[in-house]
Amino acid sequence: MRSFLGRDILSLKDFERHDYMRIFQVGEELEPYARDRQNGELLMDKTLVTAFYQPSTRTRLSTEAAMHRLGGHVVGFSDPRMTRAGDFYQESIKDTVRMLEYYGDVIAMRHFQQGAPHEAAKWSTVPVINCGDGWGEHPTQVLIDMFTIWREMGTLDGLHFLLVGDMRMRTMHSIGYAMSKFDISATFVAPPEMSLTEEFKEELLSVNLVFDEAETTEEAIADADVIYMEPVVQADYTRSRVEVEEDRGLTPAAYRVTREMLRDRAKSDAIVLHSLPRMDELPTDVDDTRHARYWVEAYNGVVIRMALLALILGAAE
Ligand code: CP
């Protein structure tokens, strides 16, 4: 079994079933810090460096909160325009990381370029956590999603997932790899211009994932145990920042999940996950149905990120 000590978390491609289970187990051990809102001392001699080249609410703040909950320290930036990487100098990943590694013991990076955290890991002597790279992957988010499903459904095996939204999204790539490690089948629903690429389909087939595609959520929802959503009204994830346009458009009915649809067509115990932020694909009146699990998912962000930090920094075996 591969140790987490000093390990870069860049992709879920190289995660095995026991890796998920070990993170879930440590998450459950550390959960009291999050549940009881009490900070401990487990990582009091460690420092996290956050290097966020793209906006984030959940990923950065829950990673920082996880470090604080374990008594650790945090330095970093949430906007590259305040650093030499985002001004006149356009300082390279290599040069930036060769500074950041002296400022802490682990680097959590979000970047608009796919592969940027991998490049950082090449030069860094401390572990790098990919907190989302362009359209690439978002491994920590999907670890949180899988933990949420495991806890809520009591298993990951034997489930059918309905995945709705923009299949270019980094979460969709990471969850594709994650599903393939369990006895999970999947149906993907996306607008044609945002559907699974042939290359990614080949990759999913090569890891024996059983999946199909449907045109609308409505026709596929009845079979789903887990409904996993992303917007189709979408920002360009290859840019550092996208300001709001006057008219962002509405989500076509085929890619929405509504309260009525859940009542009339979904399994009684189906759960809805959304990594957030949402647009109109998931109306707010779904929030108080028994299906909604995205707020639990958000809470689990702190739990699982505590587990990852503790494992990577050697405070848990
Ligand atoms: N789920 C997620 O990645 O949210 P943020 O972009 O706010 O971090």
Describe the structure in brief.
The chain has 317 residues and is α/β, with parallel strands linked by helices. The chain has helices spanning 17-35, 58-69, 93-100, 116-123, 139-153, 170-179, 198-206, 217-220, 259-265, 294-312; strands at 47-52, 73-77, 106-111, 128-133, 159-164, 184-189, 210-214, 226-229, 271-274.
Quickly count the domains.
Answer: 2
Spatial separation of the terminal alpha carbons: 11 Å
SS elements, strand count: 9
**Unreliable residue runs:** none
Strand residue percentage? 15-25%
Q: Helical stretch count?
A: 10
- Going by CATH, the homologous superfamily of the largest domain would be Aspartate/ornithine carbamoyltransferase
CATH topology of the largest domain: Rossmann fold
CATH class of the largest domain: Alpha Beta
Widest sheet: strand ordering: 7-6-5-8-9
Principal-axes geometry comes out as globular
Query: What level of helicity do the residues show?
Result: 25-40%
CATH architect. name of the largest domain: 3-Layer(aba) Sandwich
